[in-house]
């Protein structure tokens, strides 16, 4: 696979990654690998801004709406699936495009992930039930006891990280931190990372308008159709949480919509903070994505 390149197009939510990835993939005549941890699920295309049938007809996409909402899917499984798929894509050409803003998904393919064992349904359900019933406090105390190292560094307000660490500790009987080696795996292909960004004001305006468009497309009806599954991890995300709060009478419709906009903007800022740490990303405006990719590929060719 030596002359092959995986082109990663990432950036904050709402910046225009899908359109840019389609333009690049069409230019290179290759497929798109979807790296969005919510777009992998069926039944929620509006709220997750999944590639539309029209967009998927333009370029073949992989890992879009291929899991049921109650199916477990993780960054580790994504790494395995992508690494199994890439050889067949590279048989047809030298390129594949990976597009998405789920930072863990992007990182696992580019750098590898520690071999954390699969968690059984029993362990997962038990931990989730305790979290829902008693909150994070008891789980944090347990984490402090089982893995003081990880307890010291974990974000105490991030339930996902804490719940996952407890699951691993209980499943393996080992501290979660002892299984996290952080070794970067060498991949048998080039990795080109392009980050899309724009002025903050423009990005926030795009996000606000995209939420308005989701409402027009029927986000409320989509959220109602999955309301009975609200406890699933796949629905523990911006757009659905606020709609569910509205259905519960905790806020009115207008407030829910404004809250979705605000929480999406907050998420975009978090993504940018995470991505800015990665010095291997070449940043550009969405309209310059194809030019940027072409320039990097040309440099690679010249250096070989």
Pairing-aware structural class of the strands and helices?
A: alpha/beta
How is the biggest beta sheet arranged? Answer: 6 strands, parallel
Helix-strand topology string = EHEHEHEHHHHHEHHHHEH
| Assigned CATH superfamily of the largest domain | P-loop containing nucleotide triphosphate hydrolases
Q: Distance between the terminal alpha carbons, to the nearest Å?
A: 14 Å
- State the CATH architecture of the largest domain: 3-Layer(aba) Sandwich
Mean pLDDT: 94
How many helices? The count is 13
Helix content: 40-55%
User: What is the CATH fold-level name of the largest domain?
Assistant: Rossmann fold
**Count of the domains:** 2
Shape, principal axes of CA atoms: globular
The radius of gyration over CA amounts to: 20 Å
């Amino acid at each position: 696979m030596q002359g092959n390149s995986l082109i990663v197009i990432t950036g904050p939510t709402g910046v225009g990654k899908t359109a840019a990835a389609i333009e690049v993939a069409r230019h290179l005549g290759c497929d798109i690998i979807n790296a969005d941890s919510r777009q992998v699920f069926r039944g929620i295309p509006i709220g997750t801004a999944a590639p539309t049938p029209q967009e998927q007809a333009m370029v073949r996409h992989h890992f879009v709406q291929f899991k049921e909402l109650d199916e477990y899917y993780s960054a580790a499984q994504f790494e395995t699936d992508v690494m199994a798929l890439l050889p067949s894509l590279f048989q047809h050409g030298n390129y594949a495009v990976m597009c998405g803003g789920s930072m863990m998904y992007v990182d696992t393919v580019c750098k590898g992930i520690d071999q954390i064992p699969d968690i059984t349904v029993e362990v997962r359900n038990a931990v989730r039930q305790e979290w829902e019933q008693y909150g994070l406090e008891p789980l944090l105390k347990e984490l402090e006891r089982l893995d003081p190292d990880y307890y010291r560094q974990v974000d105490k307000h991030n339930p996902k990280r804490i719940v996952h660490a407890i699951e691993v500790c209980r499943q393996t009987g080992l501290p979660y931190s002892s299984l996290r080696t952080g070794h970067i795996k060498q991949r048998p292909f080039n990795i080109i990372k392009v980050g899309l960004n724009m002025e903050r004001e423009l990005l926030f305006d795009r996000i606000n308008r995209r939420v308005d468009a989701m409402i027009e497309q029927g986000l409320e009806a989509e959220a109602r159709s999955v309301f009975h599954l609200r406890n699933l991890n796949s629905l523990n995300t911006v757009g659905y949480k606020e709609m569910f709060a509205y259905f519960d009478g905790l806020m009115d419709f207008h407030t829910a919509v404004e809250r979705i906009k605000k929480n999406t903007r907050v998420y975009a800022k978090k993504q940018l903070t995470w991505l800015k740490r990665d010095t291997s990303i070449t940043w550009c405006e969405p309209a310059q994505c194809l030019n940027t990719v072409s320039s990097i590929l040309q440099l690679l060719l010249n250096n070989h």
